[in-house]
User: Fold these one by one.
Assistant:
Number 1:
Amino acid sequence: MKSDFILDQIMNSGVKGEVFIRLKTDEQLPLKAGQLWFGVYDPLEELLPTGLYTAMDEQGEWYLAGAVPAGWQTGIRLTIQGPVGSGFNLPPAARRVVCVSLDERAHYLMPVMLQALALGAEVVFAGEQNPLRLPELVEVFGLERWEEWWDWADYIAVQGSLPAAAAFFQKIDRQKLSGIKRAIAEVLIRQSVFCGGMAECGVCAVPLRRGRSLICRHGPVFDAFQVDWLADGLQESGGEPY
Amino acid sequence: MAFSAKQELLLEKGWMNHAGTLGFSPPAQYWQEKPPLAYVTPPVSYKPRPLPADRAVIRFSGGFLLHNNDYNPGFRAVIKEFASRWQRLHVPVWVHLLLEEINSAERMLSHLEMCEGVTAVEISLPYEWEGEEKIALLRSLHCELPVILHVPLNEVMAEWVKDAAGLGFSAVTIGAPRGALEIQRGNVLSGRIFGPALFPLTLQALLHLQIMGIPLIAGSGLYSRRDAGIALTHGAAAIQLDAILWHGGIF
């Protein structure tokens, strides 16, 4: 879909350089965890569309989050386009869910945590310090203790930049990734996406075990077992930091 | 004369996309309200060109630099996957070829002559080549389709461009220039430059190249309807739009 919306609220997400935005709309936008949207206010000023990811605060309120241009103020009319990709797909039968945040942006995983709790699953959060107050039922682990929850989980959702995700998965035993798949592992890869899904320029490419995929066309969530985490240059890639 | 097109190139003061801005299969948003004169494919080389590990888009005041090594899966793979889709487009297709060597260039051109839906070929040459090398390659080529020479904006004053005027090109595109930016201390990336800050240079190039007597396509720095009108009034037979298409275009 592509529509114009009034920008209703801009809030601090708790992460430097990133804000939450909320749009004034009579109808609920079809927001789902792990999907990418694009926003633009003044094409001549901004030149490139701004990537926005779906996020949720600790009260369970949906937002779009991103590093937005300085010209975005409440009351302006934004053109919003999306969503790209199908996002995280938590299986209804999942009973042991782990959400892994490779930086402080746990708000991208909050919808998965709340959905898993609503389904009656046990939920573990593993990650860096994050500004969100997690639900009481969520057990918190450090990233370095991944061996304790990797084999326990039947669904794992990870979020981070491409270099961070590459570093994380390279640390994990290769046999665990390429061997018998016990858990479903999906990863939200935050990579700069500039063309609004139109150019196929390759800047947002993610290397897969077979070929590659473009975030701008297929979305930012991947099956972690399909990504080639050992591809050359992954830990340095990405262009402008998002 | 190297090129002697059997069909005439029809340019009617309209617009199209710049090579590399709309992928290999143009999305529906491309059409805008005023239909394009053509759809231009991304640059295609004979051999696949890999993505550089440091691929990036870097902004600067007035524009941005795209560093992607003209990434493409190579001519054969592109034709295999997309040629049939191009046939079904309701718009003429111009294939943009990156020519690097005579034999592969001849093979690509002769193959495209038989591709339904492909009505013209836009060609560009390695930026780092000397003018003599460029002219030598161009002189040795033959193609029955209309051929458009794509010249980066920062090369339009080069002597070889004037020399190329007599080789039978159907048009010359004044395209996105090459540039370089420092991303970290000592680390410089180069690539194509896009952005509205380039428009005054494009207009100057239009005025300069009119003496060639070949239709000119203004393909750099066009981000508003006003600038498009100015370019068309001052010598452009058509215009090419780039990143503004990602916002829905200007028509």
Note: The radius of gyration of chain B is 17 Å.
Number 2:
Amino acid sequence: MASYYKKLKADLEASAGAGIITPEQAAAVYDRVYGARPFAAFRAAHWIGAAAGLFVALGVILIVASNWDKIDAATKMFAFLLLFAGVGEAAVRLDGKPAAAVPLEMVWFFMPILGIGLYAQLFNLSGDPVKPYLVWAALAAPAALLSRRPFSAYLCSALLFFTLYSGTLSSNSILALTAARLADAQPLWHWALALAVLAGGTAVFPGRKLSLPLGASVVWLFVMLLADTAIKIRSSALILLSGMSLAALWLTWGSEPEDDKAGLALKTWLGAVYLTTFFWHYKGDEYVNRSAADTAAGGAVAWLLFAGALLSVVFRPQRLLPAGARDELAGKVLLTASMLCSFLLFDANEATAKAVAITANLLLAAFGTVSIISGTRDSDEKQINLGVAVLTILAVTRFIDIFGSMLRSGMAFIVTGLAFGALAYFVNKGRKALIESVKK
Amino acid sequence: MNWKGNANCLRLVLGAQVLFFAAWGGWLFASRNTDSPEFYLATEPVDPRDLFSGTYVALNYEISSPRGGNCPRRTRDLGRLFVKLEDKGKKAVTAAGEVPVYEAVDCHANPPQEPGWAKAEMIHRFGGPVATYGIERFYLNENDPRKDARSGSVLAKVKIDRNRSLVLLDLVEKF
């Protein structure tokens, strides 16, 4: 990302030097773009302040946790309430002075869990391990949302997602969604609470960049589909369909149009397609089918995800390849094909699974090739490198994970190598033609 | 109106947070001071640590697997349960002399309005279903020798509050 700003600055300076824009305009454009980057308002001093607040908060928590049993409960509680009010009031009063406000806000954020820990110690409270975290998040969220700095909001969002993952994957908590052994399914209101926590974690996340919370939500939903929950799915076809649909949804909705790259969502999609190439070794569903069949709710969720992903791919701009009308169709075709190939696994057998694996290999090969061509056309070195990396990883994997006989694989590798050579020749030829056209 | 950084809104939030802890603390104090008899329970402690609350003794109780009366039938289902605790003649010797150790004598989903019924939650653990009472942790100073208490060497001093919840008051060494 830093290289993007460096390149932007160089391009703007070059444009100013060529007389296309004035140096003032170049500086204004750069300041505007640079100021809008994530954590823009965080100078080094703010980070140090945040670290200071974190250390102080953790230190106070440990001192309280050491249990000063010579001091009576009422005195401890009164001191805690006084400290709580003092820290909060100081953070409000010193809001305009970041060097003091940032550490104070950090300590304020941790005050609720300090209080919960203290009360548990004083009254020997035990029970549901998820409840304290939910109460902490509920108490801290309003202040995090009202703060003019995003630090508490980031922490609060992370806390909510941590609680969501740990709570829903346990079987004995207020958020539990996985069934305890030999027990009934978890009650429906656990789902309502889990979805509320999910919505909270996404809503509290500061700024308009939703890629990270959306990614965390997508991964959570996929884990819920795989775990022993009321929406569990067990057939390879539905698992692949929902996984690919979720990856496509994240890729389509997880980044703003002005973002230059899809980032983590793109890597997740590539990873999902890469894993699909291993369906070559598929020997039937007996390994995944042991813990019962698909649930009706799980099947419905998988089909809804597919419908949503398909509509999104058709009607939203694709983010698989760099934005631009030329690659729009290629990106949409690749995304759609990655979802549709899972249909081959319905009533799966070894032949259809091999067809899925071959499709996935072709998808990655096509992505790599289109990336190289697109990167050459737009002089985007990173895009070319990505394409080459995908093709190389694919080739190396297939070398280790031999598809057919050694003779056939050897031939295939020689053909791939020659294709690479031809591609490099045409890429270079295209680059020279571009330079010539600029010279003329 | 710009809510971000608004001092009055932030003070309102701070007030609500402090009020929450003041009210909760008051309620916990009131629960602990309920006018009900105190009694003892046999324990099986282990000693982990909590990062937010400090060193504690994790307690399992004999009443975690209640066996008397309807208990074997009632404890098959997970969820809310009430357990009748009673002195059946079992005794232990502490620094304060000989004390009765209460036992679980019956279980019910909707118990009669009489003293001695404690609220429990049946949950699934590795060894099967167990009854938890919210008294499974006793917090200690990190240098307190009771944190190394061996199984069966301590008693939990408890009482039942007005909400039928057990309140853990002390961990007493047996002689």
Note: The mean pLDDT of chain B is 84.
